[in-house]
Design a protein that fits this description.
The protein is mainly α and 227 residues long. The protein has 8 helices and 2 strands. β1 and β2 form a beta hairpin. The chain starts with a helix and ends in a 12-residue tail after the last helix.
C-alpha cells in the first residue's frame, strides 16, 4: 500500500513538473513578452476632434508631444498621419490578396500598425532610434516613428516639418519616390495628401483650445511646474 501511494505521488510530481509547470511558465513568459500588445485600445470615439482624442487617451498627447520635442513634427501632423494611415487601429494590415480568386494569399505590402510602417523603414528606425521594445502596434512608438521618418525626410529632401502635404507624399512614396516625382502620376495620393494637410490644420486649431489643459492636467503641474 505504501509503495502504491509513493508511486502515485511520484507520478503526480512528474506530471506537475513536466506538464503543468511548463504550461504555466510559458503563459507567464507570453504575458511578460506581450505586455506591449495585451492592452489594445479601441479607436477613439471622436476621431475628428483632437481634443476629444486626447481627452479619451491623455497619454497619447504625452507621446505625441515627446515626439514633437524630439523630432520636430507638430503633434497635429502626427495624428493626421495616423488618422489616414490606420484610422487609429493598432493592428491593422493591408488585406491579403487572393489566389485563384478564393484562397487567401500574400499581403500587398508589409505595412503594419498605427503608422502603417513598412518592414524596411521600421528596421531602419529600430537601428537608428527605436528602443529594443518598440512595437508598431503601440501609439507611443508609432508617433516616434513618424517623427523620426519626417526628420529623415527633412534632411534628405529639405522639406520643412510644417509642410504636412509634402511630408505625407514623401511618407507615402518614400523619399526616393518623392524625389523622382512618382506622386505626380497618382492623383489619388495627391488628393489624400491634401486631406492630410487639411486635417492637420483642423487638428492644430482644436489643439490650440485644449493643449494648456493637457499640459497641466496632473496635480503637481501648476505655476512654474506647468510647461
Amino acid at each position: 500500500m505504501k509503495t502504491r501511494t509513493r508511486n502515485r505521488l511520484t507520478r503526480m510530481r512528474w506530471h506537475l513538473r513536466h506538464t503543468v509547470m511548463p504550461i504555466v511558465f510559458i503563459g507567464l513568459l507570453g504575458t511578460l513578452a506581450g505586455g506591449y500588445s495585451i492592452d489594445v485600445p479601441p479607436p477613439p470615439r471622436q476621431p475628428d476632434n483632437l481634443c476629444a482624442i486626447f481627452g479619451e487617451y491623455p497619454h497619447w498627447y504625452d507621446y505625441a508631444r515627446a515626439s514633437e520635442d524630439k523630432w520636430g513634427t507638430p503633434i497635429a501632423s502626427q495624428m493626421a498621419f495616423i488618422y489616414y494611415e490606420s484610422s487609429f487601429r493598432s493592428h491593422i494590415q493591408p488585406p491579403r490578396t487572393r489566389l485563384y480568386t478564393h484562397l487567401p494569399w500574400k499581403r500587398p505590402t508589409t505595412a503594419y500598425g498605427y503608422a502603417q510602417a513598412l518592414d524596411p523603414a521600421w528596421r531602419d528606425y529600430m537601428a537608428e532610434a527605436g528602443s529594443a521594445f518598440a512595437d508598431r502596434t503601440q501609439i507611443r512608438h508609432a508617433v516616434d516613428f513618424i517623427g523620426w521618418y519626417n526628420d529623415r525626410t527633412r534632411r534628405q529632401l529639405g522639406l520643412p516639418l510644417t509642410n504636412a502635404r509634402d511630408l505625407y507624399l514623401a511618407y507615402h512614396e518614400g523619399p526616393t519616390g518623392f524625389r523622382q516625382g512618382r506622386h505626380l502620376e497618382k492623383p489619388a495620393v495627391r488628393q489624400l495628401a491634401t486631406r492630410v494637410a487639411a486635417r492637420t490644420e483642423r487638428y492644430q486649431n482644436q489643439l490650440a483650445e485644449c493643449e494648456q489643459a493637457l499640459r497641466c492636467r496632473r496635480f503637481w503641474q501648476f505655476g512654474p511646474f506647468c510647461s
